[in-house]
UniProtKB/TrEMBL annotation:
Residues 29-258 form the ABC transporter domain. It comes from the Bacteria. GO terms for molecular function: ATP binding. Gene3D superfamilies: P-loop containing nucleotide triphosphate hydrolases. SUPFAM superfamilies: P-loop containing nucleoside triphosphate hydrolases. Coiled coil: none annotated. This is ABC transporter ATP-binding protein. Keywords: ATP-binding, Nucleotide-binding, Transport. InterPro entries: AAA+_ATPase (IPR003593), ABC_transporter-like_ATP-bd (IPR003439), ABC_transporter-like_CS (IPR017871), ABC_transpr_LolD-like (IPR015854), MacB-like_ATP-bd (IPR017911), P-loop_NTPase (IPR027417).
Amino acid sequence: MWTRARTNRSRSDLAAVAEEAAASGCPAVRLAGLSKDYGTGPATVHALRDVSLEVWPGEFVVLLGPSGSGKTTLLNLVGGIEKPSAGRIEVAGTDIAGLDEKARTAYRRARVGFVFQFFNLVPTLTALENVAILAELTGPDAGEHSRAALASVGIVQAADRFPGQMSGGQQQRVAIARAIVKEPPLLLCDEPTGSLDLDTGRQVLGVLRALAMEGHHTVLLVTHNSAIARMADRVVWLRSGTISREERVAAPLKAEDLRW
Ligand SMILES: Nc1ncnc2c1ncn2[C@@H]1O[C@H](COP(=O)(O)OP(=O)(O)OP(=O)(O)O)[C@@H](O)[C@H]1O
């Protein structure tokens, strides 16, 4: 049985959780002196330079910045897709920067859910199969868990449909269900509304926001769209591979109230 219980915390609860977590000294993610270079010699690209950042459990953090500022690189490092050139990446207190390939793969599978701009669903599999098979669920409860994940993002009625029979927003919900079905503490989203229309984008953002509010996921969301920042708990701006600014949002908007 899928065991997650909805806690539906209010925003003031969230602030309290962040304060509690800060007091306990264990952020969900802690980056310290993080750098990433691509290439060597004069052709070296310094994608990230000496980035330090702490993200607290249950926080919804939006990363903003112009093209090439290092947003996706940061997400890929936290997600264990790439290794840093220097610095530490602590996730729930464990440094993942030094893990070997096998351990990083295990980390990714157990601790991280990814949501991308393009939903990356397999067209020949149903929504349910896209969740169960692509998340590599096994055992007698796989179907039940996948159905519960689809229900938690409001799309269980489409469980037996193929991607070609669903709207973009529905497909993105399936992709989110796939990302959360193993209940990873970290949800990393790279332009999750980039290929959706405004209304559908708002609905998908509402789903992501609710997942953070329920307290099961810390969300890091990369976007070009500064309007989305208004629904975050915190906004981090990147420029040329460094954090140029950070701001806590005093009164985050509900996704449906976003205008852009
Ligand atoms: N695999 C790679 N090899 C070489 N350079 C790379 C690689 N990946 C990223 N870069 C470079 O690192 C820098 C940061 O790229 P990144 O994709 O992180 O930026 P971004 O802010 O996510 O950009 P965008 O908003 O356009 O997706 C850019 O100069 C990019 O060209």
